[in-house]
Amino acid sequence: MTRPNEIKPREGDHPGTPYAAFQEGAELGPVSFDITPAIVQEYFDASQSDPELYRVDGRQAAAPNVILPYMTVPVYQSYPPIQGIVMAELEMSWHRPIWADETTRVTATGKILRKFEKRGRHYVQWEGRFNDVNGQPIATLLNTFHVPE
Amino acid sequence: MQRSLNITQGMIDAYGRINGDNDIIHYDHDYAVERGFRGTLLHGPHMTALAADLGAQRYGEAWLYQGKLHTKWIGPVCPGDTFLAKLDESGAIEAQSGGKVVMVGSATLAE
Questions:
Q1: Would you call B24 and A83 a contact, using CB atoms and an 8 Å cutoff?
Q2: What CATH number does the domain located at A4-147 have?
Q3: Which of A76, B3, B35, B76 sits at a 20 to 30 Å CA gap from A57?
């Protein structure tokens, strides 16, 4: 089992990354982690999701958004977060189920696409790709977050 | 279709445990108020997750293979709020909390 806090730098544990330090074009990862049946169940509980919605021919799948607690791992490993980051936007696509009865090895990579200022606030936008052991995509995402001054 | 939940600090704390963060904007009421919010904030991806079930409900098994979820977080969700997410026939998502729109987006299938 890989809990997100084992691989995701936490706010306050490291000197946080100021907006100026983010580099457009920077490659992120790779970083690998295991989503176990226990994580799948804990995520169902913590996100108030209904497991009955995620059955395929009687087999239990995870809510595909179980990736979300790991979402920032690739970017935060390269750019440890400061306190007060606020998420702004997320586009996420899923490509295959994560099964609830087995451990899924995931490898995450990404890239900082751009940084920009809007209405006096600073934002960072990056893309992420979460692949299985065969290199096939489980999920892909585009995320934008606000970095406070 | 829609779903409604009453948000508690306990829900935010439980999501924080699996999320593994230590961002005090989710846990320290005074800090959140100092930042200009009504209180501690529900995690944005948690808000997304609350709406994601509507996609699964709409599209069934295909959601796991072709699901596309877009969420833009435009307002805070705080303990004590009633969070209401709606998915319309076109796949548009709108969520309200504390009487205001806090998230917009879509839940669709890739072609």
A1: yes
A2: 3.10.129.10
A3: B3
